[in-house]
Amino acid sequence: MPGDMFTEVDPFSQVFQALWDLAEASTTIMSLTKPGNRIKFSSLDSTSRDPVKTAVQDGDLPELILTSVGSQDMNMHSDSCSTRLMRRFDWLLSTGEYRITYRLYPVQWALFAAMQDYPSVLLPLTWNGAQFVKKMRWGSLSEGLSNAALNRGIKGWTSLLSVEIDMWFAKNDLRTFNAGPQEGP
């Protein structure tokens, strides 16, 4: 990335993009959600700094958003050489529809099916020359009728589908990263 102080994309950004890659590799998800309704918080273009639509119409739905939730499970001493981090991401789906079988279930099912290919997309990711993703697992799936007052006027079914990514990093690599770039001779 131009002007970036790092020469390599950080692991969190790689995973975030890989989850979108999995979703967008699904022709079913692509047919069920319009490109402008897949809300991404990772675009580098200046027009996408606030991708969430404030005025939502029926053509803007269903809306699929990937959010970063953080981590509740980190272990600095997983073993003598590694640090482990379990990072959670949530897929948010707003349907604008009360018929549960019209938008909610089809998009949920397509997303569930799309994530099954995670070994070929997430496991090969590397940071500092080493693969760092060990596995992906489903967290929880919650759904209910949207509170339109809190969800930009969107009525109907909404859901939140969590995925957890288990990442391991060599402690020496983290120490070297923290030391900053080394000056060459």
Q: Which radius of gyration do the C-alpha atoms yield? A: 19 Å
* CATH topology label: STM4215-like
Reading the helices and strands in chain order gives: HHEEEHHEEEEH
Helix content: 25-40%
CATH architecture: 2-Layer Sandwich
Our measurement of the CA-to-CA distance between the termini, rounded to an integer number of angstroms, reads 25 Å
Mean pLDDT: 82
Class derived from helix and strand content = alpha+beta
Number of helices: 5
| Sheet with most strands | 5 strands, mixed
| Whole-number tally of structural domains | 1
**Structural shape:** elongated
Low-confidence spans: pLDDT under 50, at least 5 residues? 1-5
SSE topology sketch:
Blueprint: H1 11-24, H2 27-32, E1 38-39, E2 63-75, E3 82-94, H3 100-114, H4 118-121, E4 126-127, E5 130-131, E6 133-145, E7 157-170, H5 171-179
Parallel strand pairs: 1-2
Antiparallel strand pairs: 2-3, 3-7, 4-5, 6-7
